[in-house]
Amino acid sequence: MSTLPLEDYKRYGRQMILDGFGLPGQLKLQRASVAVVGAGGLGCPALQYLGAAGIGRIGIIDHDRVELSNLSRQILHNEETVGMYKADSATQALKRLNSHLTVDAITTALTAENALSLLAPYDVILDCTDNAPTRYLLSDTAVALKKPLVSGAAQKYEGQLCVYNLGPDGPCYRCLFPKPPAQDTVGTCEETGILGVVTGIIGDMQALETIRLITGLHDYKPSLLMFSALSSPQFKNFKLRTRNVKCAACGTAEQRLGEIKDIDYVQFCGGPRPDWERRGLGEGVDGWRIRIKDFETALKSGKQVSILDVRPETEFGICQLPLSTNVPLGRLVANPIEFLPKKGMEAYIVCRLGNDSQIAVEALRSVSGEGVVIKDVVGGLRAWSRDVDATFPVY
Ligand SMILES: Nc1ncnc2c1ncn2[C@@H]1O[C@H](COP(=O)(O)OP(=O)(O)OP(=O)(O)O)[C@@H](O)[C@H]1O
Ligand SMILES: [Zn+2]
Q1: 88 C-alpha vs ligand 1 centroid, how far in Å?
Q2: Is residue 189 annotated as a catalytic residue, yes or no?
Q3: pLDDT (0 to 100) of residue 185
Q4: N or C: more exposed end of the chain, with fewer CB within 10 A?
Q5: What is the count of structural domains for the chain?
Q6: Are residues 363 and 250 in the same domain?
């Protein structure tokens, strides 16, 4: 029979003595892996309870950094971690709670290109983000990976909770919301305000639903829970129907969306918005990224640019852009200073899909001074082939 490390009986004893939980429940948590996307208002409380309960592996995906204005609700961060990546700051907090936890801190944004590969290793996915494109992306990814998506949302005095893709026939987010909300009806916490404890309540409930799913304490009846701090009663629960056969994501085969990496979620949700752009969502968005069409324009403009291709040498040998230089990612990250562009020169970083190039830009950025232009090419050579030059090989 499997056992736990001796000190874990003491650490988790209070929950282990619960009816229906026991040693099997604790072992299930220990063997489970959970991905939390967004380490903000919802993610922090969810992570805190998931870590405290003894989830074996926790992935934290967030590309944003901690700001002072986050501290009133994003309770894993503190004054000393302002400026740090939220994923790193949250990891640090969880490790303080339990030094044995296994935490993967992922400091890149979840995008259509990377969602499947980043989330595939985890059993349960938590949506703790705050924007429509990411909600659709997460829902489609959870459907593709056949994993439950524990989704939270909070704004002003109100919150919502739902487990999508629950059990064999629970609906996905698209089943309920086939069309994105009108842009003027949604806003960020920065725009609309939020009471911190409301995110705490919803984030805690996301942790609770996750624990119920993993330990087998869930009833698998899909429902949408609405919370309103100033109403009476504060909680209302709506039973949901099973999945919609006409749903583009989870319905019958004819309705399929196509491949996730090819979907432009920002466009689907009504086009770029400044706050999404600030988040690095959509394409070509913050000052450190360039969308493929703009990259093409920059190359044609005649200005002096350098193109660094960070793929492995073998892949570079397969196909490459004219005038690009190969610097495999490992070499660049080991010594970014060597590869900084000269003053006045713009550097564009490419890779196959647009993931490694973000890591490369991050490394260059950490050693670059003011006025240096370094951008990663969103979607990489795959996007080049798709949107610019159909004769460029896809491999
Ligand atoms: N596609 C994404 N990939 C990774 N993290 C994301 C993505 N979209 C949103 N997030 C993260 O989800 C979190 C949402 O949390 P929250 O809204 O509480 O924080 P915030 O955006 O810092 O708040 P504020 O609106 O007050 O500035 C943010 O930390 C944000 O970076
Ligand atoms: Zn659906």
Answers
A1: 14
A2: yes
A3: 63
A4: N
A5: 2
A6: no
